Amino acid sequence: MHEKMQSNPPQPSHPNQGPLILEDQSRPSKPTLKSNFSRYYNQISSIDIRPNLPFHISRFMGYRESNSNLKPIWLFTWLRFLPIYFENLLSVFFCSFLSILLICLTYSYSDLSHLNIPLSLGSAGATAIILFVTPLTPTATPRNVIFGHLIASLTSTIITRIFKFNLQTTPNLIQGEMSRDLSWLTGCLSMSLTAVFQVMTGTVHPPGGATALLGAISPNFVKIGWEFISITLVMVALQLAVALVFGNLGRKRYPLYWFFPPKPEHHDHDEAPSVRIRNPVMEKDRLKLIGSWIHDSVIELETLDLNDHRRRSDLIKNLNHALGLINELDLN
Known about the structure:
mainly alpha
């Protein structure tokens, strides 16, 4: 009987399945909504059309083929003889001055000049600081700048519509009406809801808080209603145009990315080496990306305030992490 049991071992249900039946059982039976969203997000975030554009267009969209291309254009080759610190000072002064000047000229000679918009739109100054002083931070990316202000202006406009202020009167009368009503509540709601929506959408941009607050409590902006959204977007477009053009003339670059941060795949240290699928082409692309991170971090370290010890410590940690990722690469 023992020999009979040995002569009739259990057969797999499929002739080619064999020992792989345990591997099939370990697979998830059905993809979840979260896994599908992550897969689609990774596919969309990997799309970058900048390499396919002409050089003179892709450069002013922040794209560089390699770190060796971080050189001034031919009209600004003299910048190479300046320390990167002084080049950064020139860029900060000129870009911030030009961006605010364009906003003032645009609204001073438009049909809305009587509303004193350049004096009321104080969030433009805060955006200029973030765009031209810290251009490599996530809050300075075009995604955060555009959607941060869009969410703020839309939220404040909706809140003021809910409270139904009389828009047919002059700003002075609106101000009197708001002082007797719950204008303080509109400002608080607009600001707090804007902060929540920015966190939920991953588009945190601190100057958007000022935009939301001004849109809810400033009589000039309350009067123009929905037009406040278009005014805010024009302001954002002017400042981004200055950042894209003049932020890519020298040895700096803006932006590092537009909508999705480029993140190389990171494998856990306890993962079995046989499980990893190594692709030399992908590994070289990751090496270029990590090299770009290192270069940008070094530039930021050179221009960093000596008293900003916390940011300096974070940059050094990022450099050490980048070196660790390089050690994990397999370029053979």
